[in-house]
């Protein structure tokens, strides 16, 4: 039986979540656009990472649900979900002594079991992930010998090797210098434009979010303050409401998109 188009994709229905008995995000309903980059934006502590972790099944909802193709994601088998959805947490733990190829190959674990070991298809998936992320030339090197930007590409390659239509990333540009931040965001943008992936990412940098995101989800105190799609205008008023800071908006002459500079409110030292 054909699946209803409204059931396909990733959708949040009145989702609430948190830690122990403390609710961090509350009553969030969203549809994640397929084949696009959705960026979660907001001040520290607003619930961005909690929301991403709940979508990724790392946290159980306190209310509502996350639906993947019409089915509650938290009720599906772990292996079935891991073939649909890849997650790159904020500070992934790196086992000692792994080469780049060995790390990226771990992305194939969801496709293996005691009856199905390493195959040519696994080899091809890893090589394609290395190629897409520009890490093929140092596949033989220890991951710990690489720069921060190169390591981050390796982690993204592992998520790509998992061969999932959805990729979730929590602050993938943190601690990287400007060049590597741009390279990572260009890579994620390319994955949506040319490789059909749906990317959901938490970003701290507002201007990067505005310039790379297809959909922006603004969070404040655990609730959605606003959602902007590709043709919507991001205003200084919205930024002020989300971050509690006055900003000046200018237009990037190369992209036509806005960028924002904060300034002091009058009367403040």
UniProtKB/TrEMBL annotation:
Transmembrane is among the record's keywords: no
Keywords: ATP-binding, Cell membrane, Ion transport, Iron, Iron transport, Membrane, Nucleotide-binding, Transport
Membrane topology: Peripheral membrane protein
Pfam family membership, one: ABC_tran
Subcellular location: Cell membrane
Domain ABC transporter per the UniProt entry, residue ranges: 10-246
Record-level GO cellular component terms: plasma membrane
GO terms under biological process: iron ion transport
Molecular function terms from GO: ATP binding; ATP hydrolysis activity
Source domain of life: Bacteria
PANTHER family, sorted: IRON(3+)-HYDROXAMATE IMPORT ATP-BINDING PROTEIN FHUC (PTHR42771:SF2)
Family the UniProt entry places it in: Belongs to the ABC transporter superfamily.
Full protein name: ABC transporter ATP-binding protein
Lineage, broadest ranks: Bacteria, Pseudomonadati, Pseudomonadota, Gammaproteobacteria, Enterobacterales
């Amino acid at each position: 039986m054909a699946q209803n188009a409204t059931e396909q994709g990733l959708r949040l229905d009145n989702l609430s979540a948190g830690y122990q008995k403390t609710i961090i995000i509350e009553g969030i309903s969203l549809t994640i656009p397929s084949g696009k980059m959705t960026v979660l934006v907001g001040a520290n502590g607003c619930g961005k990472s909690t929301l991403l972790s709940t979508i990724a099944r790392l946290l159980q909802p306190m209310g509502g649900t996350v639906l993947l193709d019409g089915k509650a994601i938290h009720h599906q088998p772990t292996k079935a979900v891991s073939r649909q959805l890849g997650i790159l947490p904020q500070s992934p733990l790196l086992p000692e002594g792994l080469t780049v190829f060995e790390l990226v190959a771990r992305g194939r674990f969801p496709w293996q079991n005691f009856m199905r070991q390493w195959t040519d298809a696994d080899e091809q998936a890893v090589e394609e992930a290395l190629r897409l992320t520009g890490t093929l030339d140092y596949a033989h090197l220890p991951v710990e010998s690489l720069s921060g930007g190169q390591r981050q590409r390796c982690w993204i390659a592992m998520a790509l090797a998992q061969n999932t239509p959805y990729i979730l990333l929590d602050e993938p540009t943190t601690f990287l210098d400007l060049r590597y931040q741009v390279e990572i965001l260009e890579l994620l943008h390319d994955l949506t434009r040319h490789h059909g992936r749906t990317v959901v990412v938490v970003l701290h940098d507002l201007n990067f979010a505005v310039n790379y995101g297809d959909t922006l989800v603004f969070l404040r105190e655990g609730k959605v303050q606003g959602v902007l799609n590709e043709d919507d205008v991001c205003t200084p008023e919205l930024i002020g409401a989300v971050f509690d800071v006055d900003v000046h908006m200018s237009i990037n002459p190369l992209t036509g998109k806005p960028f924002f500079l904060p300034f002091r409110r009058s009367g403040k030292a």
